[in-house]
Automatic annotation (TrEMBL):
InterPro entries xrefs: Znf_ZZ_sf
Entry protein name: Uncharacterized protein
Species assigned in the record: Lactarius akahatsu
GO molecular function: zinc ion binding
Keywords: Metal-binding, Zinc, Zinc-finger
Organism phylogeny: Eukaryota, Fungi, Dikarya, Basidiomycota, Agaricomycotina
Amino acid sequence: MRRIVGKWYRCAYCAKDLCADCEVFDTHDSTHVFFVIKAPVDMKASRCVFPHPCESC
């Protein structure tokens, strides 16, 4: 796994993060909504705003 560069797609329902290249080809659940993040992110802060189901602040 590599660091995401460019647009970052994060599923609002499950622990799925995609880069722009992978998002085009991904066969993720079509009923799930993705947040698109375009700027660098403070990962510690983002985990509180966009937590994965198995994480907490």
